[in-house]
Specification:
Order of helices and strands of chain B: EHEHEEEHHHHHHEEEEEEEEEHHH
Radius of gyration of chain B: 19 Å
CATH architecture of the largest domain in chain B: 2-Layer Sandwich
CATH architecture of the largest domain in chain A: Roll
Oligomer: heterodimer
Number of strands of chain A: 5
Distance between the termini of chain A: 49 Å
Helix content of chain B: 25-40%
Structural class of chain A: alpha+beta
CATH class of the largest domain in chain A: Alpha Beta
Strand order of the largest sheet of chain A: 2-1-5-3-4
Strand order of the largest sheet of chain B: 4-5-10-6-7
CATH topology of the largest domain in chain B: Uridine Diphospho-n-acetylenolpyruvylglucosamine Reductase, domain 3
CATH topology of the largest domain in chain A: Ubiquitin-like (UB roll)
Largest sheet of chain B: 5 strands, antiparallel
Number of helices of chain B: 11
Chain lengths: ~160, ~290
């Protein structure tokens, strides 16, 4: 069936099967590859997208359930060729190794810091507990998020 | 995933008619954080998936000292709502421990209760809170106490044509509370979890003690043996230790691939003591 999606601020009509997850729709049907398929069971965080501003596993929601809701992938972060300040913080702190977990880390971190701008390192760590980095580069990811939080609070 | 018919009813009546018509062949989709993995692995292959997220069943309202939750209230709401934290802090503390942040964005209170994983936090907390569940079908509406809802591993008294619509609990703002759990990795289901509620009267004695376990039996359970040790007594360190020992003796855990029954039993006692001690100190602050 044809369903309407709002992806990174753009409305798109897509032919969707009931048994497709949102991950299937975004990657296989629409060719949006900036979210990754890791575990397919909601554990790894690689397929994270923001749904109405909250992080969800796109492998654990049917495509049809995401109709008419605001979907944001990591591509929605950068505007007009300029990287988002959080992306810049990741670059500055060397928080990207193989890059597979990075979209999920960025979106989860961003959504959390928007709700909890005064979060300390321990709280950020807890919020990211569901995002796995197989390069194990957690320290630099936390460094980048912490630095971004300080910038947000004018303590940069 | 296998092919199925996707239905997204927009009213309760429409939903109940679908469930009455298809019974076992339909699966209700709420937050989907347990159902989607099951579908992804083809562990269940329902012919019809009934997405109820269009129903107005989200949020909490206060009524005569009771909190009434729509079945679609998200874990994130339980975790973040200042109202819920004030009136029922046990629920907020438990919600923080569920899965990961993505599970809490979508997962629902009603979904967790009907799925009835014996190691899940919310069924255990509902037992401690003496919650009541409202089940609706085209045959009518019935209310089931949490204590008789969970019947076995992933099993409840809900019939195939029924929908859990509302969960109500009494407000417990003046009770000390605590949830303790141990899991192998962050985000895993608990090996054992404990919920404790304690109220202390003016004479400094416990007049209401409630303890519930998850992961210590095929269903979540209340531990009346431990509650009786505390009730009517001053909650001294020794008394709390006795209650925890009674809880440990009452636990009937099973072994699985990862964890032995003996270790679960050990954890039951340790976590019961920690939870009761923390609930008692909060109750003393509140008294």
């Amino acid at each position: 069936m044809i369903a309407t999606f709002s992806i990174n601020g753009r409305t798109r009509d897509v032919d969707v099967q009931p048994n497709q997850t949102l991950l299937d729709v975004l990657r296989d049907t629409l060719g949006i590859f900036d979210l990754k398929e890791g575990c397919s069971e909601g554990v790894c965080g690689a397929c994270t997208v923001l749904l109405d501003g909250r992080p969800v596993s796109s492998c654990l929601i049917l495509g049809l359930s995401a109709r008419r809701r605001r979907i944001m992938t990591v591509r929605g972060l950068a505007g007009d060729g300029e990287l988002h300040p959080l992306q810049q913080a990741f670059l500055r702190h060397g928080a990207v190794q193989c890059g597979f977990c990075t979209p999920g880390m960025l979106l989860t971190g961003l959504a959390f810091l928007e709700r909890h701008p005064n979060a300390d390192r321990a709280a950020i760590r807890e919020a990211l507990a569901g995002n796995l980095c197989r390069c194990t580069g957690y320290a630099k990811i936390l460094d980048a998020l912490e630095a971004y939080a300080r910038e947000l609070n004018g303590r940069g | 995933m296998h092919p199925f018919e996707y239905l997204a009813p927009e009213s309760l009546d429409e939903t109940l008619a679908i469930l009455a018509r298809y019974g076992d062949e339909a699966k209700v989709l709420a937050g989907g954080q347990s159902l989607l993995p099951i579908l992804n692995y083809r562990l269940a292959q329902p012919a019809h998936v009934v997405d109820i997220n269009g129903l107005p069943l989200e949020g909490m309202r206060l009524e005569n000292g009771r909190l009434r939750f729509g079945a679609l209230t998200r874990h994130a709401t339980l975790e973040e709502s200042a109202d819920i934290r004030h009136h029922c802090p046990l629920l907020s503390e438990a919600a923080r421990l569920i899965g990961n942040v993505r599970v809490r964005s979508l997962g629902t209170l009603g979904g967790s209760l009907v799925h009835a994983d014996p190691a899940a936090e919310l069924p255990m907390v509902m037992l401690a809170l003496d919650a009541r569940f409202t089940l609706a079908s085209t045959r009518g509406v019935r209310t089931v106490p949490a204590r008789s809802f969970f019947t076995g591993y992933l099993s409840t008294t809900i019939e195939a044509d029924e929908l859990l619509t509302e969960i109500d609990v009494s407000a417990t703002p003046a009770m000390g509370y605590a949830v303790e759990e141990i899991s192998r990795r962050a985000g895993d289901f608990a090996i054992v979890a404990v919920a404790a509620l304690v109220r202390i009267d003016r004479r400094g004695r416990v007049d209401d003690a409630r303890l519930a376990f998850a992961g210590a039996a095929p269903t979540p359970v209340r531990v009346s043996q431990a509650e009786e040790v505390l009730s009517g007594h001053e909650p001294t360190v020794e008394r709390v230790a006795q209650a925890a020992a009674a809880a440990r003796a009452a636990a009937q855990p099973e072994s699985d691939t990862f964890v032995s029954a003996a270790y679960r039993r050990l954890l039951s006692g340790v976590l019961a003591r920690r939870a009761l001690a923390r609930a008692v100190s909060r109750a003393l602050e509140a008294a």
